[in-house]
Amino acid sequence: MGATPLEYRLKALIRLGGPVSIADYMAICLGDPEHGYYMARDPFGAKGDFVTAPEVSQMFGELLGLWAADIWLQAGRPAPFNLVEIGPGRGTLMLDALRACRVVPGFLAAARITLVETSPRLSAIQQERLTCAGHAAGWATTIDNIPDGPAIILANEFFDALPVRQFVRLQGIWRERVVGLDAHDNLGFGIGPAVLPTTDVPAHLRGADDGSILELAPTASAIAETLARRIVRSGLALLAIDYGYTETAVGDSFQAVRAHSPADPLARPGEADLTALVNFEVLARAAHHAGAQVSGPVEQGDFLTQIGLMERAGRLGADKDRAAREAIAADVHRLVAAEEMGSLFKAIAFAKPGIAPAGFG
Questions:
Q1: Which of 14, 77, 195, 278 has its CB surrounded by the most CB atoms within 10 Å?
Q2: Would residue 3 count as lying in a domain?
Q3: What angle do CA 264, 268, 272 make, to 5 degrees?
Q4: Angle, to 10 degrees, between the axis of helix 22-31 and the axis of helix 5-17?
């Protein structure tokens, strides 16, 4: 099998300017306008490369919709307000959320729906599905284009796809890990010239063993702070759910998935999803710095249970046959079980002070 178009492009870029950071490699592989992973394909579901929680069960999106409605009610039913999803995939979460919120008087009439999406292919899918369901919506390509005014923002598996930088501790110095070319002209990991100042390393990690890898998430931190400032300024709240860890630690979480299986992140650039575990400590710190009230992180299983997953599953299966009820139970298990999505995935909320987001009690 020959090289992918992005592999040719990356190799030419490296020959011309030298090795690239992990962050630049991720950004190119995922977001290249012509050949980036998210730009020209639908990677979700059984026919794609991975399955997200909204694709596991309608209950996930329904509960997040009702979570948003509770925020709106607490804030005094502002009208209009922005209901925003960042990284909305195929639009499944938003559709399920809107369907659930039909029971909340005034919510749908007040909501101005905005989907933040960079992929033309996914935007087209979202637009077709929302239009067929009778929902008017707007699209933005960056968070800076979200309309002004109070907003409830949902972000499921958004932060994990943002670029990270990696630094390796070698002889007591943290040097940047990069992607370059090996002796056989293949993409490979190496060490670049950039050095991370000791003052930028958390105190408890400054004595880490040689070979330890520290991941930094400057893009995620900047976006979290920008969104938190917007929440503080205009209201209302943001809910982010992703897989990650709660305290900064060393470790290499840079990974690729293709056809529902782990893959070499340097193999066939542009044809696999590239992600890194989300550092929720970084997100919380950025939001605190912006003046937001931060709730969590808590494990996804605990969050969904607190906002009514078991009750919703019971109602959904009440008039179903045994096979359907067993399928619902299997979906619940996948969402909340520790060995499935329940522990690895976390939920965190930023809110304007005075709002009490559900699920974090």
A1: 278
A2: no
A3: 70
A4: 150
Q: Is the separation of the CB atoms in 331 and 57 below 8 Å? A: yes
Cα separations in angstroms, 28 against 25, 37, 262, 274: 5, 9, 20, 11
Please say if the pLDDT value at position 260 is more than 90.
no
- Is 357 part of a structural domain of the chain? no
314 lies in which domain range?
A: 53-162+218-351
Burial of 105 (0-12, 13-18, 19+ CB in 10 A): exposed
Cβ neighbourhood burial of 115 (10 Å; 0-12, 13-18, 19+):
buried
Cβ neighbour number for residue 138 with a 10 Å cutoff: 13
User: Whats the size of the chain, residue-wise?
Assistant: 361
Q: How far apart are CA 223 and CA 287, in angstroms?
A: 10
How does pLDDT run across 294-304, given as a tens digit for each residue? 999 999 999 99
Residue 106 counted as domain residue: yes
Instruction: Give DSSP secondary structure letters for 56-119.
Output: H-HHHHHHHHHHHHHHHHHTT--SSEEEEEES-TTSHHHHHHHHHGGGSTTHHHHEEEEEE---
CA 49 to chain CA mean position, Å: 16
Split into its structural domains, the chain has a count of 1
d(CA 70, CA 62): 13
pLDDT at residue 48 is higher than 60: no
Q: Please, is 112 exposed, middle or buried when counting C-beta atoms within 10 Å of its C-beta (0-12, 13-18, 19+)?
A: middle
CATH of the domain at 117: 3.40.50.12710
CB count, 10 Å around CB of 18? 13
> Does residue 173 lie in a domain region?
no
